[in-house]
Amino acid sequence: MEGTVFTPSLEGMKLVKSDEGEMLTKPFLDVCKLILPVIEKFGAAMALVKSDVGGNISRLENKYSSNPSQYHLLYSMIKEEVEAKTAKSSSSCTNGLLWLTRAMDFLVELFRNLLEHPGWTMSQACSDAYTKTLKKWHGWLASSSFTVAMKLAPDKKKFMEVIGGDGDLNADIDMFCKTFSPLLQENHKFLDSIGMDNLKAS
Questions:
Q1: Phi and psi for 15 in degrees, rounded to 5?
Q2: What's the Cα-to-Cα distance from 80 to each of 8, 41, 83, rounded to whole Å?
Q3: CA distance 28 to 123
Q4: What is the pLDDT of residues 83-95, one digit of tens each?
Q5: Residues 154, 45: contact at Cβ < 8 Å?
Q6: To the nearest whole percent, how much of the chain has pLDDT over 90?
């Protein structure tokens, strides 16, 4: 593998904004898709996250494909749902973007932990990231399934070798967290402006 497992998504992040600084739908979803192989390397521990992320990407992609010129900008489909008063529906793109962003928050936090706390086990890094990001939005059921899944987290050393390829893994993780975080924050800011950032899982 040339570079690390993050190399493709780091390249992709350069294309996420238009010249006017607006978030573009397809490049943003492509970056999230490029992170799926990273989640895959976790095996069973992340099966829930992977299906969740994959499902939300597909939902937004289907909407985008229905009219690429109309939904060229990521927030355009959300604004449309807000006007139609369907944003709060569990199958809305707004909901899809919200949970996709939260899952990505979790991954950024997890990789930040792996970088900043080399002494932690994978389970510790996962649990801490979960507590800081997803836990407050999850109900009891999701929370307990997550806790069980985290016990299946792979051995950290092996995992780092698998995702490292022949690149500088620490530099790429650092770059990934620093570059992706502001994009996610922007999504939160937008979702907050339409009153959707505090939605809890049913």
A1: -105, 0
A2: 31, 36, 5
A3: 29
A4: 999 999 999 999 9
A5: yes
A6: 77
Phi-psi region of 200 (alpha: psi -120 to 50; beta: other; left: phi over 0): beta
Please state the rounded mean pLDDT for residues 97-107. Answer: 96
List, in order of start, the domains of the chain with CATH numbers: 7-191 (1.10.3520.10)
Neighbours of 41 (CB within 10 A): 14
Tell me the whole-structure pTM to 2 decimals.
0.94
Residue 61, both tokens: 């992609």
User: In this structure, what token pair is assigned to residue 105?
Assistant: 């928050």
Nearest to 133, CA basis, from 93, 100, 92, 175: 100
pLDDT tens per residue, range 117-138:
999 999 999 999 999 999 999 8
Tokens describing residue 188: 């939160």
Residue 65 and residue 70: Cα distance in Å, rounded?
10
